[in-house]
Prior knowledge:
Helices cover about 15% and strands about 25% of the residues. It is an alpha+beta fold. The chain has 2 domains: about 10-175, no CATH class; about 190-315, Cyclophilin (Beta Barrel), CATH 2.40.100. The protein has an 8-stranded mixed beta sheet. A 6-stranded antiparallel beta sheet has the order 7-6-9-4-1-11, with no helix packed on it.
Amino acid sequence: MGLLAPQCETFSVLSPGFLSTVQDLGRFHCAHWGIPPAGAADSVALRIGNSLLGNPPGAPAIEMTLTGGTFRFDSDMTIALAGSDFGPTLDDTAIPLWQTIPARAGQVLHCGATRSGARCYLCVQGGISVPAIFSSSSTDVLDFLGGVEGRPLVTGDVLTCGPHTISRQTDLLAVRGSILRSLYAEGAFRVTPGLQSDLFPASALTQLSYSAYSAREESNRMGLRLSGPPLDSGSQKEMMTEGVSLGAVQVPPDGQPIVLFVEHPTTGGYPKIAVVISADIHRLGQRRPRDTITFQFISYEEAMSTLSEREYLLQPEQCLYSIS
């Protein structure tokens, strides 16, 4: 039987890395106020990291981008790293991803430059305790909302874990490799037709399906700007501004697609040729500048079926096993 933690554990930021922010699953139902969802760029990694620790799926964690941070634990706690491999070490000893790790007071966690993918999540038992703004703790840097004062982490920040049930050493868990291979399988990003797809020439839809694009350096949490064969939008170069959704593939006048991401504007005036399906959005969060991106059109029925399959794999009884 677990015991209620007698006090909240803390850990300190010794170095924040390139871009580290507090993120949960996002700030929804605020688009009519012009507020984007924000949230974890790879929500699957966040959810699995939290499952390993017995946290709610959306408990706030630290999202590190391209280059990780260095953190000192001021209390004993249990952590998990999920996502890309940033070569993590605990007191200079390499530690694995995708499993629970006991950390002792005074130990230092260091995450370096990414070896694969774009983002890694530091999850702590109890989640990170920061105020919720519009029902979410996610950091939206452009709007100065959520997280720690609405900004990326900086050296000297001290973060507090939320209350939780203390786990014993016998509760250590890991993620099944077969589940990770399925969830992060390489391949085209599956899309359904966008709201204006019927306004594009048939050749543009064919070209999107058979062309390879490269993520440009200026890609960020607002959107992935792609470089490749320009798409012909016909006479529909621009249109009246309307609401846009996560994963929408916009085509500006230069024909270079933009995939709207977690901090996307809530409205846009470019025609949308396609929308990345919900089951593939987390893989977008692991794309780095210059990574190749391809697309494959599927039906709405296939998109819903794929999402159901993903949700099944994310159930703790399916993806986790004991390493005690």
